[in-house]
Amino acid sequence: MTIQWNKSTCPFCGLGCGLMVGVEQGRVTEVRGMKGHPANDGDLCALPANYPPIFTAEDRLRQPMIRREGNLVPVTWEEAITHVAGGFRQIIEKHGPGAIAFYGGAINLTEEYYLMNKLMKAAIGTNNMECSTRLCMASTAVGFISTMGADAPPTCYADVEEADLILIAGQNMAVSTPVMFRRIRAAKKRGAKIIVIDPRRTETAEIADIHIQIRPGTDVALNNALAHVLFKEGFFNEESVEHHASGLSDLKELIEDYPPSQVAEITGCSEEQIIETARTVGRAKAMLVFWLQGYNHSTQAVFKSNTLHNLWLLTGNFSRPGTGPISVTGEANAMGNRWVGALSHLLPGMRLVANSQHRQEVADFWGIPVENIQPVPGRSVTDIIKGLHSGDVRGLWITTTNPAASLPHTSWVRDGLAKAELLVVQDIFHPTETTLLADVVLAAAQWCEKTGTFISAERRIELVEKIIEPPGEAKPDYEIIWSVARAMGFEKEFPYTSPEEVFEEWKKITSGRICDMNGVTYDRLRGKIGPQLPCPDADHPGTPRLFTDLRFPRADGRAALLDRDYYEPAEMPDAEYPFVLITGRLAWQFNTRTRTGRVPRLNKAAPDGYVGIHPEDASRLGISEGDETEIVSRRGSLRVPARLTDRVIAGTLFIPWHYGSTLGVGEGRLANSVTNPACDMHSKQPEYKFSAVRVRGKG
Ligand SMILES: Nc1nc2c(c(=O)[nH]1)N[C@H]1C(S)=C(S)[C@@H](COP(=O)(O)OP(=O)(O)OC[C@H]3O[C@@H](n4cnc5c(=O)[nH]c(N)nc54)[C@H](O)[C@@H]3O)O[C@H]1N2
Ligand SMILES: Nc1nc2c(c(=O)[nH]1)N[C@H]1C(S)=C(S)[C@@H](COP(=O)(O)OP(=O)(O)OC[C@H]3O[C@@H](n4cnc5c(=O)[nH]c(N)nc54)[C@H](O)[C@@H]3O)O[C@H]1N2
Ligand code: SF4
Ligand SMILES: [Mo]
After folding, report:
1. pTM of full prediction above 0.70
2. Pairing relation of β-strands 461-464 and 452-455?
3. Class of domain 65-136+332-512
C-alpha cells in the first residue's frame, strides 16, 4: 500500500513545525517533520510523532448528545443545534446578551474565531468571548503592547542562528518546544552563550552557561538589578537609547533601588552572579530573548515582560538579525487567535473594543450600526466563572478547551460550570473533565479532519487541510458555529459554505494592519510553506522581521522603557502553608492530556503525576521516594507520589499539571485543585506558578 504524504502544521505548540502526514486507506498512519520547513527542517518532537492513535482512540465523539434526566444521550445534529440556539435565545430574551458567554481554545482555527467574533460581538452584542490564550499568552500580548505598541513579535526563528547570546527566562524549552531547544543547543555548539532563568534546574538549564536559579516570583527585581548594573557599568549610550525609547530617566531613578546586593536577597541568587549576568548581556553583540510561562503565570506577569524588554532596549539588541524578543507560544494557533480578536477586549485585525475608531471600522465592515458592538471589554474567563456563580452569566458555550481541569481552583470552577442553565461543550473526546458537566456535548472534527489556517509565533500563516474524514457525524467547529448562528436567526450574516469563504472575508479587515494577509489565499498556502505576516499582496514574499527601521508603532515612534517595581506574589507562604508550589509541563503529555493521555507510548513515558520535593524538605517531613503525599492549599487538596529531587530549591515543590480525573490516574491528581486564581491585574492571567501549600506524607 502506498502512503500519501500531505503537508500540515503541528497542532500542539505554537512553534508551528511543518509536518508531513502519511495517509493510508483513509487513515493517518505516520507523522514526520517536514524537511526544509523554516521552523523545524525535518525535526519534530514526541507529541505529533505519536498522533496516529489519537485519531482512532475509543472515546472519540461521533455524534452530539443532550443531557436528559441526568444522562447524556445521543441526538441528531438538527436536534442539538435547535436546542443550543433556542436555549441561548431564551437566556438572551430573559436576561440580555451579557448573560451568555463563549470560551474557546487557542488551537481553534483563525476562521473559527472570526465567526465567533461576528456572532458574539456583532450579532448577539456581547463581548463575553474568551480564549485559553488568556491562560497562556495574554501577558505576553499586553507586555508587547505596552513596550512596543503592538502585539507583534518582531523577530523570527532564524534569529537563533544569528545570536551570540540567548537569554531564556521562565521557559523549559527542552520540554515545551524541543525542536527550538535543539536549534539553541546547536547555536551553543557554534559558540553562542546561553543564560537560563528558572527556579528549577531544568533540562533547559543544563545547557546554560549561566543558570540563575531564581526564587519563584522575583523576576522583576532581578531584571531591574540587571538594568542597574548595565547602567552603573556604562554598558549603554544614553543618547542612542533615547533615540529609540522613551522613559529612560524614570527607569534610571527606579533602578537605583535595585542594587545587586539587595536583589540577591530577594531572588536568592548571588550578587556576583547578577553582576556577571549583566556584563554578559552588556557585552553581547546580538542578544535574543525568550520567555514563557515562568513569566506569564504570575500576578506580575506584565511587569516581568516589561522589565525584560528594558534589557534588550537598553543594550540596542533590537531590529537587527539575531536580536530582540521572541516568545514561542504554547498553543498551535499562537498568533491567529490574538490577531482575530479571541479575547473579550479585542476586535478582529488587532483592534480594541474600547477604541471608537476600531469599533466603527469593524461595524462598517460588517454593515451593522456601531452601537451593536459594546464599547467596553467583556468578561475575562475568570470573570465568566464569577458570573456563573452570581447568576449574571447563565449560558456558556465552550469549544476546544477543558476549563474544568485547566482553570485554577477547580472546585470553584466546577461549581460555577454546574450552575449554568445551559452549558454547551464542543470537544473531540468524551469524557473530559468539562464534557462531564455539559448539558449539551457537540462532536467536533479535529486536526486533519477540517481545513483552515494557523499563525505561528513567528507570524507565519499556514493552511492545515482536511485529509481524512472525521469519525461518525463529527463536524468541524466552524460548521457547528455557523449552524448555531443561523438557527439563532442570523442566516443573512452567516451565509458561508466553506472555511475558505470565511478566510476571504476576514483577510480584508486586516488591510493596512501588521497582520495584513491580503496577499494570502488558500491556493498560495496549499502544500507549501506560508509567508510571515504582514503579507499585503500576492507578490509580497512575507516579512521575516518587524520594526527594522527602528520605528515602533507608538505615538512618538519610540518603544517604552518602563519603570516597574517588584512586589510579592499574591499568596506568600506562611506557617500554615509553608511551601511554594510551581506547576509546569512534561515532554510526553500536552496540557490536560485529553489527546496525549490516549496514546499508550506517551503514557508509558509519563504515566502519572508526582510532586518534586527537595531531599532536605522530604527528610524533615519523613517523606521517602514514591510515598503518596497530600498537597493542601486554602482551596483544596490533591494526592501525588513524591519524587525526591535537588532540581527544585528547598521550600518549593513542582507538580506536572497534566493529570486530571478522567484518564485513569485518579481524581486526586489534579494540580488545579490547589492553585491560586489570583490574576495579573493588567492581563487577567492567573498565577499558576505560585501557590502556598503544605505537604503531608501519607506513608
Ligand atoms: N510537551 C509539552 N509541550 C508543551 C505543552 C505541554 O503541555 N507539553 N504545552 C504548551 C503550552 S500551552 C505552553 S503555554 C508552553 C509552556 O511552556 P513553558 O513555559 O516552558 O512551560 P512550564 O513548564 O509551564 O513553565 C516553564 C518554567 O517556568 C519556571 N518558573 C516557575 N516560576 C517561575 C518564576 O517565578 N520565574 C521564572 N523565571 N521561571 C519560573 C518553571 O520552573 C518551568 O520550568 O508549552 C507548550 N508545549
Ligand atoms: N496548574 C496549571 N494550569 C494551567 C497551566 C499550568 O502551567 N499550570 N497552563 C495553562 C495554559 S498555558 C494553557 S494554554 C491552558 C490550556 O488548557 P486547555 O485549553 O483546557 O487544555 P487542552 O488540554 O489543550 O484542551 C484542549 C481541549 O480541546 C479538545 N480538542 C482538541 N482538538 C479539538 C478540535 O479541533 N475541536 C474541538 N472542539 N476540541 C478539540 C481536546 O480534547 C481538549 O479537551 O491551561 C492552563 N492551565
Ligand atoms: S516543538 Fe511544538 S510545533 Fe514542533 S513538533 Fe513539537 S509540539 Fe509540534
Ligand atoms: Mo499555554
Report:
1. yes
2. antiparallel
3. alpha beta
